[in-house]
Amino acid sequence: MNILMSSIWLLILIGFVYTAGFAYTLWKQKNRIGAFSIFLLACAIIVTPFFSVLK
Above pLDDT 70, what percent of the chain? Predict the structure, then answer.
């Protein structure tokens, strides 16, 4: 069970880093609204598992 939780957190971290990196790329391209929206998506990737998988 502990290995399962570790792999879940690893997948969540990878998804967050990838999405936040995309938001950073949009920010550098002066697409501020898109970057903000994608950053909110990255935050949702972190918060959502607490309501579903990690009860």
Answer: 95
